[in-house]
Amino acid sequence: MNVQGRTVAITGATGGIGRELCSMLVEQGASVLALCRSQAPLGTTHLPCDLSTVEGCDDAASRLAAAAPDVLIHLAGLQYAGPAEGQDAASLAALLHVNLYAPMRLSQAVLPHFRKSTGALVFVSSSFGAIPFPHFSAYSATKAGIQAYAEALRRELPPEVVPVIHIAPRGVDTAMNGTAAREIMKLSGSRMDSPRAVAGHILQALRRETPETYIGFPESLFVRLNALLPRVVDRALRKNVPAARALFTNP
């Protein structure tokens, strides 16, 4: 899909990847609707929203339906790194709303328009959705949910009218990944990509209307291994659990 002259809506536009992607889209002649709480990136139109509650998602869905974009990119996300029992209820609810409910609700809002005039849905999840990681349990679950939702929509919608694109980056060097998250990824040998590099992959997948993209090697290989031999991956990831848990128990 050529983005020139098209209206592209992006959630999470003020994040590390979001700002880079907004800049690239504006450079290529797209009109960008930035769905975010704070001030929108330069050259975009701000559509204020709070995706951490049901009410906020529903309000954003109404605004988005009225705006009638040509492309919707789901990029907003929250992360919790730590023992599963350590995440408080409010944090868990916000994570579920931003990572899972919002993409579903906002997709519902634009689909009637997309079915009539064509439009692309882009879901940016994570390799943790296909390789669920210890100490990222809720985050992994929401990303797996988005992967499944995108796949189901791809089978439901005519691809020539509404292409559905799913992209799963590995770790990204953004503020969302705090010290604990970075240490856990280091223990597993996971690498991190720059926000600009990931934004470039997203734009390329949109241009080519690539249904499924996993960014990075060997992560893309482990996605396939986890699908075929999950117990092998269980053993590999369990080796790092004691050291990772110590990050949250040591003073």
From TrEMBL:
Keywords: Oxidoreductase
Gene3D superfamilies per record: NAD(P)-binding Rossmann-like Domain
Pfam families hit by this protein: adh_short
GO molecular function: oxidoreductase activity
Matches recorded under PROSITE patterns: ADH_SHORT
Domain (Ketoreductase) ranges: 6-170
CC terms in the record's Gene Ontology section: membrane
Domain of life of the organism encoding this protein: Bacteria
Assigned protein family: Belongs to the short-chain dehydrogenases/reductases (SDR) family.
Name of the molecule in the record: Short chain dehydrogenase
Organism in which the protein naturally occurs: Skermanella aerolata
Organism phylogeny: Bacteria, Pseudomonadati, Pseudomonadota, Alphaproteobacteria, Rhodospirillales
